[in-house]
UniProtKB/TrEMBL annotation:
Alphabetical list of SMART domains matching this protein: AAA (SM00382)
CDD domains: ABC_DR_subfamily_A
This protein's UniProt keywords: ATP-binding, Nucleotide-binding, Transport
UniProt source species: Paenibacillus residui
Keyword Transit peptide: no
Protein name in UniProt: ABC transporter ATP-binding protein
Stored Pfam families: ABC_tran (PF00005)
GO MF: ATP binding
Domain of life: Bacteria
Annotated SUPFAM superfamilies: P-loop containing nucleoside triphosphate hydrolases
Domain called ABC transporter: residue spans: 4-229
Amino acid sequence: MNAIELRNLTKTYPQFTVDDVSLDVKQGYITGLIGPNGVGKSTLIKMMLGIIHPDSGSITILGRDMSKHEIDIKQRIGIVSDDCFYYEHLTIRDMKKIIAPFYKKWNEKKFNGYLEQFELSPEKKIGQLSKGMKVKFSLAVALSHEAELLIMDEPTSGLDPVFRREMLDLLADMMQDERNSIIFSTHITTDLDRIADYIAFIHRGKLVFNEAKDEVLERYAIVKGDLELLDSDIRNKFIGIRETSVGFEGLVGNKEEAAQLFGDYAVLTKPTLEDIMYFTAKGERIHA
Ligand SMILES: Nc1ncnc2c1ncn2[C@@H]1O[C@H](COP(=O)(O)OP(=O)(O)OP(=O)(O)O)[C@@H](O)[C@H]1O
């Protein structure tokens, strides 16, 4: 079963299009949504949350059509972002009084526990919270109403390393219940190395792939070698390539094919998610 099903989603801005994206977010797993700046990650997430509406396509969340059941769906999802549209002039306590009655399964004890754990004072005004504190507050809200699905837009970008680690542990705890799911947009790919099961890679408004992280890391390879190995046919085999005066380093999407092609003449290594993002952006080629 899928926690989220996006089908043929398209949204056009004057200078940018989310272009026919279909994506399944599997229930029971953590999916990382990765991609360089400005490729459409936030636009996709805002569509999932009903904040902006697609020009065409459909969004099904927890088995229900988002365009018809937004209020019911939002009972069951948690939203984590530093941009949560809370009222800036209210204190955390007063904001909670507005939010809590909306949720049928609100757990006040849990919420107060998270405020304490995250060192958030209930007296503090939302407008005075730092970026990281806003993320902590929205995480406290998300974890206090038994959300089955967390939708998180760049949740770790404003967080210090200590809380980042703590947050990843909290997410891992949530995943103990196998019905729960998380989608998590970021360009801090090391967080995903740690916790993601699936990786959805967006580039220039298109989905490049959505695959199990381990399979992605097995399928791609970094190839390093001398410049004399390169001619135009060989260059075309690379998704992205960086050439210097001493040699080249590039990303290929088929490790076996590259191993046959280069034999002992080049060195093949396992890429990181960051390598995949970097070379795909550099190569500017969609290969899905
Ligand atoms: N309301 C809008 N009107 C016009 N263009 C927009 C609007 N919102 C976003 N865009 C454009 O859509 C593109 C994608 O933006 P989006 O915020 O989805 O990217 P992103 O992948 O989340 O980037 P980042 O990692 O930098 O947060 C950008 O070129 C942005 O300028």
